[in-house]
Structures are given as C-alpha cells and as structure tokens.
Design brief:
By secondary structure, this protein is mostly helical. 63% of the residues lie in helices and 0% in strands. It starts with 5 loop residues before the first helix and ends with a helix. This is EboA domain-containing protein.
Length: 298
C-alpha cells in the first residue's frame, strides 16, 4: 500500500522547499495543505491549490545538498528530486496531504488532476508516482505517460523515476525502454534498467537496431545495455557488427555486452579484443560512461 513513509516524505520536501521559496510561499502552502487534508474538504480545494502552486511557490529548482540526495534515497529507494522545481515539490506535498485511506477515492481524485493538468502539472504528477500510497492503482496511468508526445512529461515518468521498475508489467516496461531510445533520451537515467532487463526486451532492441541499420540511421550504444545477458546466436551477429564499427563507443558497448554474457562465443569474442577486455576489467568502460559520452555527442 505504501512506497514511502508519507510523514517523512512530507517533512523532507517541506525542509527543502523552505530553502527554495519565500516565507510567504510556505505560509500559503501550509494553509492549503491543511485545507486539503480535511476529510470533509471539497475536491475543488485541491484542484485550485494544485493549479496555483507555481504562482505562489515559484518554479526555481530545488536547492538540494548531497545529504538531501542521500535522504531522498533513504525515504524511497530511487527517489531523485535533483531535477525538481519548487512548484513540483509543493504539488506533491498537496497530493500527499489528501486523505488516502480509501484507495479508489484517492485514485479517482488524482485521475481528475491528470485529466485536466497542463504540462507542468503533469510533470509533477508523474514524477510523484513513486511517493504515492496505493501504487498498484497507477500502473495504467503510468503507461499512459509512456505514450505521450510531450518530452518533459515522458521524462518525468520514464527517467530518474523508480515507479516503472518497481510496478510496471513487463510489456509496458519494455515499451518504455524502447521509446526512450526512439526519442533519443539517455537510457542511463532509467532507474532499474539492469534489474528489469529480460530476454524479450533484448530481442525487441535487436530488432530495433536492425531497423535503424537498414534505414542508414545510427544506433545508440546504450541500446545494448539490457542485452548482454541474453546474447544468443542471433544477437551475437549484432555484437560482431558493433566490434567492426568505427565508433569507439559502439566497440565499448560491444565489449561490455560480451562481458555481461555467459555465452561462450561472446566470451571468446571479447577475448579477441584484448585491449577492450582489459579496459572493461579495469573499470575504464562502464555503461554510465558510455551514456555520458553519447549524450555529449547528441
């Protein structure tokens, strides 16, 4: 029923907000939170406050310390508000102030917000999914976020967000990873990408790479990150093609994929490239480094 201690989450977000917005903004927010938490509150109290949050709280980025980042991960593993704004945090506090004992009533009230939200409000709603009670009730809504054409909204649900890895079914998860590559977003920002890799996803990504190659388009080296453990005879041909590419990043991706495979032919293929194998073993090649370099080139 719970992903995070709601009291601890609210305390944390309020402390961070106090360093980011004005005393007048905090006073306004506290008043609205008290209104919203009343069991007899009318839904419009939430809707009006949610919409007005950016006007009273502002849109400045949250001022987070390294300790804040550690605390966020303690409150909810994977929770990363480093790209959140003040308004985003305030809107999440309003949602967490709602009565939530009745899960279906809680979901329905949030659905109304989702269905009427502008882009900034949608970003707050989707990024707040990993903090909500009754997380099992929001799978369909999260999948809707994967299908959006709004880049900021897609990022809010797919990147730096632990909800998909923890709650989405395999097909929805696989579609999210594929779309991340399709829209050119960094795979290294998908929380739980290693934990949720699977054979079906590896095959989907291999097929996607073939489509890109056939069209003469580049293939992100990050595509191969979830593939390594599932290298088979067919995917091995893809990896051989990567080793033959002039791009150093693609060669590095091939080496890492082979290093993560138990396939004997993949191991032999890596051994045939001793310099790359040595760099993998020395930690000089990692998926994060490949992702960072690829992002700089895009």
């Amino acid at each position: 029923m719970y992903q995070a201690d709601i009291y601890a989450t609210k305390t944390f977000l309020m402390e961070v907000l106090e360093r980011t917005t004005t005393p007048e903004g905090i006073k306004w927010l506290v008043q609205k939170m008290k209104l919203v938490e009343d069991e007899n509150a009318k839904p419009k109290e939430l809707y009006l406050a949610f919409s007005a949050a950016s006007r009273f709280i502002g849109k400045a980025p949250l001022q987070l310390t390294p300790h804040d980042a550690e605390m966020a991960d303690i409150i909810r593993p994977g929770f990363d508000p480093s790209r959140w704004t003040a308004a985003q945090a305030a809107r999440t506090l309003l949602i967490l102030s709602m009565p939530y004992q009745d899960g279906e009533a809680f979901r329905q009230q949030l659905e109304t917000l989702f269905n009427t939200a502008d882009m900034g409000e949608l970003v707050a709603l989707y990024a707040g999914l990993p903090l909500l009670p009754h997380p099992e009730l929001f799978r369909e809504r999260a999948a809707e976020g994967f299908r959006t054409n709004m880049g900021d909204v897609f990022e809010a649900v797919a990147l730096d967000n632990p909800y998909p890895a923890d709650y989405m079914h395999e097909d929805a998860w696989n579609n999210m990873v594929l779309k991340t590559l399709f829209v050119g977003k960094p795979v290294f920002r998908i929380y739980g990408i290693e934990k949720r890799r699977n054979a079906k996803l590896a095959r989907i990504l291999s097929d996607y790479a073939h489509e890109r190659w056939a069209a003469g388009r580049p293939v992100s080296p990050e595509l191969w990150r979830p593939v390594g453990p599932f290298i088979d005879e067919a995917i091995l041909k893809d990896i051989k093609k990567l080793f033959a590419q002039p791009s150093e990043l693609e060669q590095e991706a091939a080496a890492l994929a082979c290093a993560q495979s138990s396939n004997q032919q993949a191991k032999e293929l890596l051994s045939a490239h001793p310099q790359l194998k040595s760099r993998v073993e020395n930690g000089e090649i990692t998926w994060r480094l490949i992702g960072d370099k690829n992002l700089q080139l895009s």
